[in-house]
Amino acid sequence: MSSAWIIACDEWRLMRRNAVAALAIAMLLALSIVATLTALTQRQASDALRARYQAQADRAFDGQPARHPHRMVHYGHFVFRPLPALAGFDSGVDAFTGSTIFLEGHRQNSANFGDVRQSSLLVRFGQLTPAFVLHVLAPLVLIFVGFGMIARERERGTLKQLQAHGIAPSAVVGGKTLALAGVALLLDLPVLAALGWMVAAGGAPLSDATAIALGHGAYLAIWVALITAVSALASQARGALLALIGLWAITVVLLPRIASDVALAMRPSANRIETDVAIQRDLRRIGDSHDPADPHFAAFKAATLARYGVSRVEDLPFNYRGLLALEGERLTAGLFDAYAHRQFAAQRAQSGVVALMGIASPTIAARALSMALAGTDLESHRRFLIQAERYRYTIVQQLNRLQALSVSYADDGARNSDPEAARRVRIDPRNWQAVPDFRYRGTSSAEKAAAALPAASVLAGWALLAMLLLRLATRRVAGAVR
């Protein structure tokens, strides 16, 4: 049996005798189990609720009676973002961004009904998920369990006794590291079991779950190495504890909380009210399809009449009002997309600032990796917004096309004064049923891996730094026993 293994076993024996350490480990294990069960239950309930409401919205849209097509444009439709299978591990930005969008003509609405807007402000401090337990609480327990592993030996003067028995300093540091790594693995077991359940019963991709497990294993290994190194470098156990608590407070609590504020200050972006005002200003500039004297649409009308060789819109082979609706929606949708891409660019710049702060905090990097692999990061939310807008534009233009081809220009103009014309402009409701249902296409495993790569690189850098500190700590222990 190697010296390092003997030291690790002795350290585990001391931990079992330490009531505080045993209680902290037991409490975190219980909390991990509760967080896992709660997160899985909430994820299943939320996803089932969204699926039920989506089916209800689809039935309501398909079940509309005979109407004028433009009435259906303004009737609108709801779409819901389904939760990815690994959202039970890390809910990510879902609580803040919202998951429901109301789609209608001439407008691009934002997502609504995020949990933060409907729940206590305590939600802003983090939801109880397996990821939260690993990111925030597990390092704290490891600190209380391991801060005195080597500093205690130095205070008691037992390092020289270990050397006298032929135990090398590298074996001392290696054994202590191995002991604390065993505790980290024990704390990680409930989360590993949850990931296995998500793969077996929830249909989560095995590659994504494996990558999450490896990433968080590396995160805990970083803390194990840092705690062991600080314990070896400190002259007293009390000093090691204070240094590690300070490191935890800064990297786990402070930096992740202020990262978004720093990013917003460095890369400011327009808020929703400012964006709406700017959009309305630009809408007036590009043209109003309801104004016959509008320059853009006057030129559009002249070009259309010339293309079909007629002098009046009444002589066109389709309903000109429907064509106006098609052109107006094309212009407004292009404007909405331009502002959306501008907002996305600002958010990506802010995310870049947060990612840079991850260099100073492994917790920020671990969170970014977790959300990317779980499919609950900001990029996944943008994916939902983009797909919802494409779907909105498709169904609105499909309805506008029905107005152009299925409703006559004469009836369309007389529908408010002639009851028979009003009856004729109401087309067959089977046209609503022909509109395809919204189908969200989630992020692929390859896309998730690419999104998680920067965070993984930061964690690799922290792992290298921790290993260098361990080497320095080993030299410190070697110097102490000479």
Q: What gross morphology would you assign?
A: elongated
The number of helical elements comes to 20
Low-confidence stretches: 120-125
Radius of gyration: 31 Å
What is the N-to-C order of secondary-structure elements (H for helix, E for strand)? HHHEHEHHHHHHHHHHHHHHHH
Biggest sheet statistics: 2 strands, antiparallel
Helix/strand class: mainly alpha
Count of beta strands: 2
What is the averaged pLDDT score? 88
| Alpha-carbon distance between the two ends | 25 Å
Percent in helix: over 70%
Could you give the order of strands across the largest sheet?
1-2
Strand content: under 5%
Report on the structure:
The chain is mainly alpha-helical and 482 residues long. It has 20 helices and two strands. It has helices at 3-17, 19-62, 69-75, 94-97, 115-118, 130-146, 151-156, 158-164, 169-200, 206-233, 237-266, 272-286, 295-308, 320-357, 362-374, 378-406, 409-414, 419-424, 430-433, 445-480; strands spanning 77-80, 100-103. Strands 1-2 form a two-stranded antiparallel ribbon. Helix 14 (320-357) runs antiparallel to helix 16 (378-406) and helix 15 runs antiparallel to helix 20. The chain is elongated, with a radius of gyration of 31 Å. Mean pLDDT is 88; it is low at 120-125.
